[in-house]
Amino acid sequence: MYSQFFGSYLLRRQAITPEQLTHAISQLSDSHIKLGTLAIHKGYMVASEVDEVCFMQTREDRRFGEIAIERGYLTEEQVRELLKSQMPDFLLFGQCLVDDGAITYEELQNLILDYETENEMCDIDLNVENKEKITQLIERFFLVAEIPITQYSIMYMELMFNNLVRFIGDDFTPLTPIPCEEYPVNYCVSQAIHGKVNCVSRIDMDKDVAIAFASRYAHEEFTEFDEYVQASLEDFINLHNGLFIVNISNEFSVELSLDPPIVDESEALALSPASFIIPVIYPFGVIHLIASLYG
């Protein structure tokens, strides 16, 4: 997830434009090879095993390599080997920006150094995402926006970014969170969580963007906005929130309940004071993550 936050960092520094960012991340999606694909290519796993691990990720908030090791499909040594064969995402992202002429090699060198220094990443293996560092990145992400955030909010957003990577694609960049009490609706799906942690989470986007989002999620090529697209968006938010309440139960022994997802029909949302919006840029368009977490 280092590359996603590196893109946000570059925008904040005004080192690149949103258009340059979008073009670079579209190239990144063409260049990045997933661990499962590498495992098949190496002959370590067969397609049915990769599919099974990907399915298990819809039930458990764990990385591909962790599940594959547990199922006996990969050894720890094989996972380390496959991870080393992947170029660190944010370096690949920087290379795409240089190739596009958005920045020079010298600028990339200085920006990477500043990024690593600011986030205390200079002594870590960039091929392996460190959970502690990812949590720190998310905390800093909200700190820069001057938005107070609880441990539950951090868990929620870390899981959301992970699920976007797993089920939609890692070719995205989250923009700076925006505190908001009113929001004009495009096509918005929401779901409420109740209990010690109360939350209303929403995902909003234009209908054209929803078609592309649903196509990636369902692994089907949708061409029009219909009930299948709508069901895919509802299933994504329900899957995400279901994993979140499992994580809360496992870590804090707190049981939460989940309402069915609904479509917000109003033209504008009236949000609670604790709400924030995170625009997320994909090559196919912008989605808006809207969260109101309290308790």
Architecture overview:
The protein has 295 residues and is of the alpha+beta class. The chain folds into 2 domains: 2-140; 173-294, Chemotaxis protein chec. The chain is 52% helix and 17% strand. It contains 12 helices and 10 strands. Strands 1, 2, 4, 5, 6, 7, 9 and 10 form an 8-stranded antiparallel β-sheet that branches. It has a two-stranded antiparallel ribbon with strand order 3-8. Helix 2 (18-31) crosses helix 7 (89-99) and helix 9 crosses helix 10. The two termini are 28 Å apart. The relative contact order is 0.14. The model has no long low-confidence stretch (mean pLDDT 88).
Quick synopsis:
Helix content is 52%, strand content 17%.
Which features characterize this protein?
single chain; 295 residues; alpha+beta; Chemotaxis protein chec; 2 domains; two-stranded antiparallel sheet; 10 strands
Assign a percent range to the helix content. 40-55%
- Please give the alpha-carbon distance between the first and last residues: 28 Å
Total of DSSP H or I helical runs spanning 4+ residues: 12
Helical/strand content category: alpha+beta
Question: Quick check: average pLDDT?
Answer: 88
Count of discrete domains: 2
Q: Beta-strand percentage?
A: 15-25%
